[in-house]
Amino acid sequence: MDVAAELADALAQIVGADNVLRQPQAREGYAHDQWWYAIAAADAGQPISRPDAAVTPTTPEQVAAVVQLANERNVPITPWGGGSGVQGAANADRGGIVIDTRKLKRIRSIDLKSLTCVVEAGLSCRDFEAALNAQGLSFTHYPASAEWATIGGSINARGSGVLSSKYGKIEDHVLSLEFVTPTGELVHTPAVPRHAAGPELTQLFMGAEGIFGVVTAAVVKLRPLPKARVFGVYTFDSLAAGVEAGRQIMVSGLRPAVLRYYDADAAAHSLARAVETPLDKPTMVLMFDGEYEKLVDTEAEIAFDLCRANGGRKLAAQIGAMWWDRRYVFYYPPYAPELPSIWGTVDVVADFAHIEAVYHETTAAIRAAVAPEWNLSLTTHFSHWYEWGSMIYARMKIPKGPANLAEAKALHDAIFRAGIEAALRAGAVMNDHHGVGLRLAPYMAAQYGEGMTLLANLKRALDPKNVLCPGKLGLSSKD
Q: Is the pLDDT of residue 1 over 70?
């Protein structure tokens, strides 16, 4: 019997025939995530994602049984959420089984007193938020890919949303996890994270991209929908002036729900198009929200004073409101690039002592990485801010790359290598919220050093047969 067919039959015994996708449909349905190269390779008939079968389990127990089967047969497993990741983590590049979690989509319970919720990993962020909004609640995790990104996918990629400067990244939203270990045991971490009995296992899974287990559900924090929201928009004569204004806002204890700072190129192109307003200088968009109107107004006015003190010139607040209403348009055509373009984002994070040098050195390296005839464009903004630093989000695009896939990939890789290496030299840490995947795996050793040995040891201890996402996070097959 065909090996793939035999595997599909065995999986059908666990999840039912209707929840198994066989060849060739499995490879068509899971041919790529949203990494540029995965899309381009599939378009060229050379897909890097080649699952032998895909399953859509409906219970955590079924997930556990599938993982046990994979151990028995030494078959690789790749978890799949919404397929919206842009680094290649969801690609089954070594074949095996794709576990599509999207049928694990129940909201199991909501605790209105504690404002917590038990939600399954396969529910999309958009649908989760809509269900909560109907009850006057919010998850406050608004990734740009909310339409597709799942709760589990956000956890695995250590995702951020547009409100992260106030409400935190995904790891700040999650209180505990339910997951299946690489050997097939179903585990629940303690119900709340601030316990004193041993290490905090939940955080081990944040950004692990499936190598330590398959997340099936999470206990997350909720908040009431804000009753007040105030916008502010300021332009600055220099990039440095706006960075300093943002630094003063964050280190002072103010917490804007949104603090987006666009360099002159990003303001003049992507931001200006979205808000239908001509812009030609670095531009900051701020939004404060909350339960108490007086508090929101006070926070906003203090922040606006800091912008003015650093030379910021006020624009119409309606520009900020329009940005909020259109905050997802950047990720759809005509704003989002498509083949035959080459595109991608070098996103890195640094403390305030290094952030300006990181910006200048990273953007200069990206621009210098390719010859002028490729017409590379680069729009960069500071998208997530913390009390200690900020994140730089440098979006590059080549309108039309080489027709040959290998040549196109070499051009893409040269841009990323130049950007990442320059950022690391300047004092940054790569990739604040998109995950590592296949694109950034070559740079993990440079960032983590001997920490990679610890990571490999953990992987071996938890996954002795190396069935979960083998080779991901920069761990080679021998690891």
A: no
Asked if residue 393 and residue 315 are part of one domain, the reply reads no
Contact (CB, 8 A) for 333 and 266: no
Could you tell me if residue 458 is inside a domain? no
Dihedral sign (CA 353, 356, 360, 365):
positive
Q: Are residues 220 and 314 in the same domain?
A: no
Q: In whole angstroms, what is the distance from residue 178 CA to residue 190 CA? A: 10
397 shares a domain with 326: no
Q: What is the number of domains present in the chain?
A: 3
Angle between helices 355-368 and 405-425 (to 10 degrees): 150
Distances (CA, A) of 171 to 163, 196, 410, 423, 427: 13, 18, 34, 24, 23
Identity at 391, one-letter amino acid code: M
**pLDDT digit string, tens, across residues 441-472:** 999 999 999 999 999 999 999 999 999 999 99
Q: 216 and 101 in contact (C-beta within 8 Å)?
A: yes
Look up the CATH number of the domain holding residue 259: 3.30.70.3450
Written as one letter, the residue type at 459 is K
Of 173, 208, 224, the position where a domain reaches its end is 224
pLDDT tens string 305-331 = 999 999 999 999 999 999 999 988 777
Query: Which residues are CB-neighbours of 189 under 8 A, at least 6 positions away?
Result: 176, 177, 178, 179, 201, 202
Q: Is 43 part of a structural domain of the chain?
A: no
Residue-level pLDDT at 100: 98
Alpha-carbon separation of residue 178 from 216, 369, 394 (angstroms): 6, 44, 35
Taking the C-alpha atoms of residue 411 and residue 401, their distance in angstroms, rounded to an integer, is: 8
Residue 313 structural domain: 228-331
Q: Are 342 and 408 in contact (CB under 8 A)?
A: yes
CA distance 11 to 311: 63
Structure tokens, 142:
């608004």
Count of Cβ atoms closer than 10 Å to residue 195 Cβ: 11
Per the domain annotation, does 2 fall within a domain? Answer: no
Q: Based on the fold, state whether residues 252 and 301 are members of the same structural domain.
A: yes
